[in-house]
Design brief:
The chain is of the alpha/beta class and 192 residues long. The protein contains seven helices and six strands, in the order H-H-E-H-H-E-E-H-E-H-E-E-H. Strands 3-2-1-4-5-6 form a six-stranded parallel beta sheet, sandwiched between helices. The longest helix has 26 residues.
Length: 192
């Protein structure tokens, strides 16, 4: 039952990640993208909410900030039904939810979910998961978004084209508060 299902999900996810990494490395070489151009011109943005309950609750603090970063974009929140989100509170966003029952035998998102992602034609995908989320990673990669952003994690780093590095001891909420304070203090974020 449950043990067999867990094993099949782990095996399926391992081979799927290897497939993505192979094609990312050899077939679909990631092109260099201008982050600021993508952010300024984005018309469709997907924010993948964390599946982990603790990360999910902390990430909700930042959701409204995306409206300021992408004022003209249609923003979609991708969310697992395990984590409840109040549609009234986030009425300015499109909600795209999936249920764990919509995952295949090998833990891959169903064709229905993949179709919803494909027809949305996202310009930017932002994965807010601190811990590895196979579904968020798979859907981000399958979106073909020009800019895919995540927090560092060795299982997914080379499947995104912009990785935010955090100290492993830093909590998500604390990291976000530091970024907000830097913006209010007038400090600029510079790339090297």
């Amino acid at each position: 039952g449950l043990f067999k299902n867990m094993i099949s999900h782990n095996i399926g996810q391992f081979f799927t990640l290897q497939y993505f990494k192979f094609f990312n490395r050899y077939k679909y070489k990631s092109r260099i993208v201008s982050i600021f151009e993508h952010i300024n011109s984005a018309s469709h943005v997907c924010v993948c909410l964390p599946c982990d309950e603790k990360d999910f609750n902390e990430s909700l603090v930042s959701i409204e900030q995306f409206r300021q970063i992408f004022p003209k974009a249609h923003i979609t929140l991708l969310n697992c039904t395990d984590q409840r989100i109040d549609p009234k509170k986030f009425h300015a966003f499109r909600l795209l939810t999936y249920d764990r029952q919509q995952l295949t035998f090998f833990g891959f998102p169903s064709s229905e979910i993949r179709h919803d992602i494909a027809i949305s034609k996202f310009d930017v995908v932002i994965d807010l998961s601190l811990s590895f989320s196979f579904v968020n990673t798979a859907l981000s990669w399958l979106s073909n978004a020009g800019l895919r952003i995540c927090f560092n994690n060795p299982k997914r780093d080379n499947l995104y084209n912009f990785v935010v590095r955090l100290d492993p001891e830093t909590k998500w909420e604390k990291s976000y508060q530091q970024r907000s304070e830097e913006r209010r203090g007038g400090k600029e974020c510079r790339s090297r």
